[in-house]
Specification:
By secondary structure, this protein is mainly beta. About 0% of the residues lie in helices and about 50% in strands. Strands 2, 4, 5, 6, 9, 10 and 11 form a seven-stranded mixed β-sheet that branches. A four-stranded antiparallel β-sheet has the order 1-3-8-7, with no helix packed on it. A hairpin with a 6-residue loop joins strand 5 and strand 6. The chain is globular. The N and C termini lie far apart (about 40 Å).
Length: about 130
Amino acid sequence: QVQLVESGGGLVQAGGSLRLSCAASGRSFTMFAMGWFRQAPGKEREFVATIRRSDSNTYYADSVKDRFTISRDSGKNTVYLQMNSLKPEDTAVYYCAAKYDSISRYYYTRPSAYDYWGQGTQVTVSS
């Protein structure tokens, strides 16, 4: 089992920045690919970013590329999402997710690929 706890959400004006954190506990953090997803009211959960466990290579949704940065600190068992130049359309509940990944060759962008989820943290961007 892996427990994931997100933090860092809040209210920010358009153009501002936030950094989300996701603290993991339980099984070895280094064996998991990590991802961030978001879900706005009335919409499906959508992929935001993912980071591989072996080389920390990253992959982003087009809508956040060049604005968001995902990173991981294995010493702290934590994954981060730095969000810059925020837009009102970034408003959503943001979820951290973990996928056990023995191969570490692919980027996982579908919610169904992940094994564990956090409870979510609200991000609201005002115009």
